[in-house]
Specification:
The longest helix is centred in the N-terminal third of the chain and has 72 residues. It contains ten helices and no strands.
Length: about 250
């Protein structure tokens, strides 16, 4: 039996090397973006709640109470001016209706504080392991890296994303255990119906989109105060301002 060695052209090898570089860059950026959304944003928000948010929440609640009391007094005085006996139940309902949006905001902020407190129970060790597992999940199952994968694999990736975002370590481990995570460049290319040049073009486009998403995130709360929230001087100034607001 004669064994034939099939030579791969230098151009093909160069294209494959380029694809492998782009895959690594995509994985790095996608993991960075998801880490920002799933972990760093929560960490920053928890810190914000701890050093500023709780005081702002309490100030907000106090301002709503003052506003409600002032409105009730004004409505009662208006009734007296009309020589009517103030209907306290009616006045309370009117004020509650006018302030219902503010009451909703109070409830939402209270829920956010509660969620931030619960998030503290996750150890840094667990977070690091979850990030490692998620990188493996993206490498093996992300639809942009594997556009021709089965619906079952797409569903599995969604399950893995949900497990990561909800800090369900056990489920994430079970999903990773079901996968073969040693896929090489040849297997990756052979699965695709695109040419090497098309794969490169697609990956470059996707990388540019993720970079744009990251840049946008950095300009939004709480990432836009990342440096300030870590600065004790800035935090102290904010806390002093809120104290003055209460006095005023």
């Amino acid at each position: 039996m004669i064994k034939l060695d099939i030579a791969i052209s230098p151009i093909t090898e160069a294209l494959k090397e380029k694809i492998e570089e782009l895959r690594k860059e995509f994985l790095r950026l996608y993991t960075q973006k998801d880490k920002m959304l799933s972990i760093e944003r929560d960490d920053l928000y928890i810190r914000y709640i701890d050093v500023i948010g709780r005081d702002k929440y309490e100030n907000f609640c106090l301002s709503i109470e003052v506003r409600a009391l002032k409105m009730k007094c004004e409505l009662a005085q208006a009734a007296i001016n009309r020589d009517e006996h103030p209907d306290i139940s009616f006045i309370n309902r009117q004020v509650d209706k006018q302030l219902e949006d503010y009451y909703r905001q109070v409830a939402e902020q209270a829920e956010a504080i509660k969620a931030a407190e619960e998030a503290k129970t996750i150890s840094q060790f667990d977070l690091e392991e979850m990030q490692q597992l998620f990188r493996l999940l993206v490498k093996r199952l992300h639809p942009d890296l594997h556009p021709d994968q089965s619906e079952a694999m797409k569903d599995l990736f969604i399950q893995g994303q949900t497990a990561y975002r909800t800090h369900n370590m056990q489920l994430l481990r079970e999903i990773i255990m079901r996968l073969d995570l040693n896929e090489g460049i040849d297997e990756f290319v052979s699965k695709s119906k695109e040419s090497l040049e098309q794969i490169i073009e697609r990956l470059e486009t996707q990388i540019a989109e993720i970079k744009s998403d990251i840049d946008t995130l950095l300009t939004t709360f709480p990432f836009n105060i990342r440096k300030q929230i870590m600065d004790p001087t800035w935090v102290h100034q904010m806390q002093e301002e809120m104290k003055r607001d209460v006095v005023n």
